[in-house]
């Protein structure tokens, strides 16, 4: 799952981003409205965590852009104003959810994960295929009852492959979904991560390489 955090307080933005990355999400950060619009124009995000009070371009206008462009991005709006009227206004702009500051990080994470499940055609929070069980809410994975100790990127790659339901996922799509915008050597990182993931999944091999196309989970 790929998330864009837009928050003008740089320290808070990075704090949120690092927390989400620990949950195996790919997270980019913007600290003002124009930067947020640029990233939304060139990146496909599942969830947008959006501070309402932004410099340059107001958060309300960023939210309107998401709605007007019909982006497949769910919006979680953050604001220090938490009255009923504020929540109604935020949701009326097209936001999918609303969270007042200060907030508990666990609640933020739960809301982001819930919105992420709705960003594409709905799939259950527990994904299963070829003996693999991936619980996206608890961030747990197993194969044939054996618990898998996966890194954040390994978990993200496995989730992307399982969500494809047997379809081929290209290396470029894996990069788009799992890696942050400014990660260096991302193409090589995909190969390395897949090699480690295959080793942890064990025998018989379940992640297939489709030459010239990408990767898929065998049925």
The geometry reads as elongated
Largest sheet: 5 strands, parallel
Cross-sheet strand order for the largest sheet? 2-1-3-4-5
Query: How does the helix and strand content classify structurally?
Result: alpha/beta
What is the percentage of strand-forming residues?
Answer: 15-25%
Question: Count the strands?
Answer: 11
Could you tell me the mean pLDDT? 87
**Distance between the amino and carboxyl termini:** 23 Å
> Unreliable stretches, pLDDT < 50, 5 or more residues?
none
Helix content: 40-55%
Description:
This protein has 219 residues and is α/β, with parallel strands linked by helices. The protein contains eight helices and eleven strands. It has helices at residues 10-22, 33-42, 59-68, 84-92, 105-118, 152-163, 171-178, 186-201; strands at residues 2-6, 26-30, 47-51, 74-79, 97-100, 126-129, 132-135, 140-143, 146-147, 207-210, 214-217. Strands 2-1-3-4-5 form a five-stranded parallel beta sheet, sandwiched between helices. Strands 6-7-8-9 form a four-stranded antiparallel beta sheet, with helices on one face. The protein has a two-stranded antiparallel sheet with strand order 10-11. Helix 2 packs parallel to helix 3 (59-68) and helix 6 (152-163) packs across helix 8 (186-201). The longest helix has 16 residues, at 186-201. The radius of gyration is 18 Å and the shape is elongated. The two termini are 23 Å apart.
